[in-house]
Amino acid sequence: MVRSLKNHSYEEMQQWAVDAGFAPYTGRQIFEWLFRHFTEDTSEMLNIKKEVRSHIAEYGPLRLLDILEHESGGDGGTDKFLFQCLDGKAVESVLIRSQKRVTLCVSSQVGCAMNCAFCRTADMGFIRDLSAGEILEQYVQVQRLSEEKISNVVFMGMGEPFNNFEQSVRAALVLNHEKGPQIAARHITFSTSGIVPKIREFAHLPYQFKLAISLNAATNRIRDLLMPVNRRYPLEELLDAAKYYVQTTNRHLTFEYVLIKDVNNGDKDAAELMRLLRPIPCKLNVIPFNETGASYRRPDEKDISRFLGALSAAVFPVTLRLSGGRGINAACGQLYHEVLRK
Ligand code: SAH
């Protein structure tokens, strides 16, 4: 991992200052320069002594990612950013505007190890974890460019955040920090493909971050086909962990369900979903499959309405996510970049 102050928590920033022979408030000021003012040039840190500034510069780089490309979806709703890390690896983030919020979807890893059959990121394979600083840097770079304030952050880009748990939570704590971006904890969502022990661990964190689970099937037979993680943590264990999360935190969670034509969009699937989720206080977010080059197909409007109709007796709310950015491959499941090697 590249050594950088961008990986430091608020407390660690103060300790860093003390260890370097300065006052703790110097660390607090640096934190604000980095995460409130998005400064990456120490000469702009006007309230910081010159000798401290040279220390900062020597410690490690402050700019961890460069924007290589910025594409707009054309609909005014979605922008995709391609970043290059210092080691040449590439990751993407997506900015999504809706009436009520501006959401940044960040990557937690370069590539992904989960190998879900319907997801384009799987084609990259797993390359490496991102550091907390690299996760935060996606936010910092996009927020610097953007006039609108990012109100929500979702860990739904490339990678499995629960396989990079510590760095992802560390990044979220900085995003939430009152001296930093001040994004409400309830506006930060972690999405997991179903890493059961980490769902249980997440339940015990003393923060109000939200949880989403990519369910995508109502039977082990179909989930095994779509998501290899199901062979390790089958539905029963996953749903037990979801119940445990709700009981422990007293909070709802969201299940995501990628709707794939002739794979999981039947009346039977809907009935089974209602049976499975009935005991869990939750919301179901149905995401019609976005094209990835895989042999799966997106259900047409009629199939989608039929599936939603079949769920009309559900005791939990059902929402439909019509991902923007399909034209620029920025929608759910479409993030991919040729592996850049140096
Ligand atoms: N690895 C985590 C974070 C990624 S979230 C997770 O799996 O939850 C990305 C979301 O997009 C997941 O809910 C996933 O199921 C969904 N998705 C993946 N491929 C898709 C596709 N082709 N069309 C629609 N949604 C897709």
Q: What's the total number of strands?
A: 12
Question: What name goes with the CATH superfamily of the largest domain?
Answer: Aldolase class I
Integer tally of domains: 2
**Number of continuous helical runs:** 11
Give the averaged pLDDT, no decimals: 96
Largest sheet: 10 strands, mixed
- Could you list the spans in which at least 5 consecutive residues all have pLDDT below 50? none
CATH architecture group name of the largest domain: Alpha-Beta Barrel
Taking the alpha carbons of the first and last residues, their distance comes to 16 Å
Molecules bound to protein: S-adenosyl-L-homocysteine
Q: Strands of the biggest beta sheet: in what spatial order? A: 1-2-3-4-7-8-9-10-11-12
Q: Which structural class matches the secondary elements?
A: alpha/beta
Rg: 21 Å
Percent of residues in helices comes to: 25-40%
CATH first level of the largest domain: Alpha Beta
Q: What is the succession of H and E elements?
A: HHHEEEEEEHEHEHEHHHEHEHE
**Beta fraction of the residues?**
15-25%
> What fold name goes in the CATH topology slot of the largest domain?
TIM Barrel
Instruction: Give the overall form.
Output: globular
